[in-house]
Known about the structure:
By secondary structure, the chain is α+β, with helices and mostly antiparallel strands. The chain folds into 2 domains: 3-149 and 220-243, no CATH class; 152-215, no CATH class. The chain is built from 6 helices and 13 strands. The strands form 2 sheets. Strands 1, 3, 4, 5, 6, 11, 12 and 13 form an 8-stranded mixed beta sheet that branches. Strands 2-10-7-9-8 form a 5-stranded antiparallel beta sheet. Mean pLDDT is 88; it is low at 1-10.
Amino acid sequence: MPESVLTSSAFSVSAIWRQQVGNHLRRRRHHGPRNLAVVTYLVRGHATNKLIDIRRLTVCVLHDEFDQAGAPTIRFAAYRLSQIALGITVGGPDQILLDKDLALAPRRRAYGRRFARCDQRWLPLALRMDRWLQRHARHPFCPRSAVLRLPKFWVALQTNHVTGDGPEFARWCQDFGWPAEEALRISGRRYRGQVLYPLEFVSHAWRQFRKVYADVANFFQRQVVRLDGSDQLAGFQGACQYDLLNSPHRRMPD
């Protein structure tokens, strides 16, 4: 379905949903879920450069599930990014903005996990992401990733007296044969009068974090992840914890 159909006055939201989603739910009940997830990043406000304060980022995920009764659901969730002890978190129950089910037909008055027909912010995005997911499910040669890719994160500190630490920093020093002080100096970059360091090199100094930036240059802000039964949507990458599965009403067991 063309992207422009979402804004066409010839189609109501209900008709779009029925053609794109509703007509395929019965088939999905028999054929199982599309074992893919679409993840996309949104920037709040005007993005004038490729270093974005993580407080301005929202990460959205859409993927298929089945409820306890065996009915297909299409989960759409949006999360914030935030600083935590020893690093940052991308998503997680405490960072949830909303958790909806696109398999429920939108209504004028909607509650809980159902979209409202008048939702002009999240519902059009969820429909677009569902089309991306369907396109990749239909065409196996469309690019997809085995793991969730995160942007590189950079930290501005409140102090100039900092040392590098952690396994990634030790490997960096060993690979290039640099002393620790020199290696940290070389790893830094200047941005708006600040010196930024890679998150994984200074995560031990998390109490001194002033700001954390995501580098979205050369980063695919939309990606499709192949789901094979393991937790590709929750885990750790360096000093970054990510969890695009859990929300307050659906915490996974420890």
